[in-house]
Known about the structure:
This protein is an alpha+beta fold and 179 residues long. The protein has six helices and six strands, in the order αβαααββαββαβ. The radius of gyration is 18 Å and the shape is elongated.
Amino acid sequence: GDIIDIGAPGVVARRVSRKRQLIAEAQSILWRPFFQLLWDVEAFYDNVNLLTLGKAAVRAGLDRRQLILGMALLLAPRAIKSGKVMCQGVQPAGGLTAGLKRANFYARLLLFPILEMMHKTIPQAMPRSYVDDLAQLVIGSCDDIVSWGARGAKLLVTALRASQVVISPKSTVVASSID
Length: 179
């Protein structure tokens, strides 16, 4: 399921990575071929297109008043404080402020329809979301893994690009039990 945690930066990602690795290792021990793609979305919160997010929220059936109030909070000036020093308000240029309590909720509004479509199209690709980190785990025969893994990856990349979500090639990882 979904992991929601408020920890030090990187702690949750490491915990999730260990969980994913454990699942993959279990498949290997059972002699079941697997293919795993761990997608990292580049600066997800900073790069969320608010118009695309608004459209996703309307499609999800979010009450329009709730959406308008939420967007007002997302676009409100931020004050930065360090010790006893506080700057004047800074207007966000766009995207979501990762520290906002509803940031993960808005992230899910954008990403879950993509994962749902992918799951309905290729359920064997087993898409998962850990807020802005996405994973695909394919288990089956070697032929199935190649077929489902490639189709699932292409489908996910196409859908993410259509939603203006940028994948980080430096942080995306492929793991497999086959050569």
